[in-house]
Amino acid sequence: MKTWSETAEVQPLASRIITNSIQKDRLSHAYLLQGERGTGKEAVALLLSKALFCSSRTGVEPCQECHECKRIESGNHPDIHWIEPDGQSIRKEQIEHLQKEFSYSGVESEQKVYVIKSAETMTINASNRLLKFLEEPSKKATAILMTENSSSIIPTIRSRCQTIDFKPLNPQAFQEQLIEHDVSRSNAVLMSALTNNLDEAIAWSTDEWFAQARKLMVQLIETFSSHQDDVFLFIHQKWLPHFKERKQQERGLDLLLLGFKDILYYHIGKEDDLAVFAIDDIRIENLVMFFSQGKLLDILNKLLDAKRKLKQNVNPTLVMEELTIQIQG
Known about the structure:
The chain is α/β, with parallel strands linked by helices. It is built from 16 helices and five strands. It has a five-stranded parallel beta sheet with strand order 2-3-4-1-5, with helices on both faces. Helix 6 links the parallel strand 3 (112-116) and strand 4.
């Protein structure tokens, strides 16, 4: 999404709210963009930044060609500051550094923008620091916070931002996009269930690590159903060595969610909605015989709880061991 007109096709509400504010010169001093990963939050943050700095803007549309637009696109504009998690969280020191930067005059103008990615990962101290910053807004400073989970952001920060909701992308349309990029239909269905980001989905579809991750997910579910005594061995010898990093661990739980959801869908006659298994796959027929609908609902809830614990930095080995006991119970 390089223009507001393109954005309007994918996120009409977000586009309308921001472009109306640009036209009326009534932009908020702080925005909270909330929605699933890949729904266009970062593209909108870039567009809004360009609209503020572009020297040749036509109406609401930045020109994309001027020096300002090109530097923003490349991430090299001196008056636009991006903050991302340092490890698993955004720390107080990062916000303090931002405040120090903003105490100076703009390098080329008085306008400044700061963008905070994954704002839900701010520590309490970082949140309190940012709150003080938001309570004393500069007329020329614009804050853009992005999050997948606004409920994890303290209410006092949310109340000082204009919240803009990003709707999930249409999965069928996204699948067709992937197929146009030579992704197989079965892979397109799986990718659309995992991400809304086109580049990410295309990369995963040819990634050997991801292919092995998908294979391990199916093997683990089958081990739960047919070789329960071997599950802990499988977790320690195969699962944990493959899913080493935090994002990989989250991706593993996402795949397990889809796998168990497929079994539930097969149970209730929603075979057309399967993401991992094929309709004629004998494995899913066997799994349906083992897992009851009630058990599957309980497993899905336990998986969501495990995802929350990973977000809270609980040790991933402990998370998987506890999850294993719960699924076996």
